Amino acid sequence: MRSTLIALAALAALSSGVAQAEPATYAIDPTHTFANFEISHFGAAMNRGRFDKKEGSVQLDKAAKTGKVEITFETASINTGTPGFDKHLQSADLFNAAQFPTFKFVSDKFTFNGDKVTEVAGTLTLLGKTNPVTLKANQFNCYQSPMLKREVCGGDFEATIDRTQWGMNYGVDWGFAKNVLLRLQVEAVKQ
How many CB atoms lie within 10 A of CB 46? Predict the structure, then answer.
């Protein structure tokens, strides 16, 4: 009898160690998620803009320290605050919104330090080309939203990319910068 109880206790201990948390799915909150960019204009000033229309989801398993993200942005939703500049950015010279209406960031490689995401490595598909991009987290947090009554996770991420890797070469011969600072502000609501 005693050996049976010991065996049952060992089996219970083993099975409790096998149980793991399931990844949680989060929907991108479009009111708190933006892709922003900064690019030097002849070294005199910075041109800045953002993309207003986006959708996507995040899967996060805090216990296993893993995650996945897919966010799609509409190129025609670019907003610099100057309509004429927006039209040029949407043209075939740059984002070519007519032929490439979206660009996408996808990742399944999250790096953690404790409970905090510190880096998300994935791919950026822009102008029909896909290249690796690693976004570094400037901050990351999960919190219980008092308004939504659900968990929200998010952070500010950034990477500097060479736009010519995606074939966006406009103005490089005139001295326009190749390097673009991308800032991705993301908040997502647990489903």
Answer: 12
Angle made by CA atoms 50, 53, 55, in degrees to the nearest 5: 120
Residue (of 71, 28, 73) closest to 51 by Cα position: 73
Look at the alpha carbons of 94, 96, 97, 101 in this order and tell me if their dihedral is positive or negative. negative
Residue range 21-190, CATH number: 2.40.128.110
Q: What are the boundaries of each domain within the chain?
A: 21-190
Secondary structure of 91-140 as H, E, C letters: CCCCCCCCCCCEEEEEEEEEEEECCEEEEEEEEEEECCEEEEEEEEEEEE
Q: 161 - beta bridge partners?
A: 180
DSSP assignments along 3-34, one per residue: HHHHHHHHHHHHHHHH--PPPEEEEE-TTS-E
pLDDT tens for each residue of 67-125: 999 999 999 999 999 999 999 999 999 999 999 999 999 999 999 999 999 999 999 99
pTM value? 0.85
Q: 53-89: buried (b, 16+ CB within 10 Å) or exposed (e) per residue?
A: ebebebbbeeeeeebbbbbbbebbbbbeeeeeebeeb
Cα separations in angstroms, 113 against 35, 144, 175:
24, 21, 40
Helix (H, G, I), strand (E, B) or coil at 179: strand
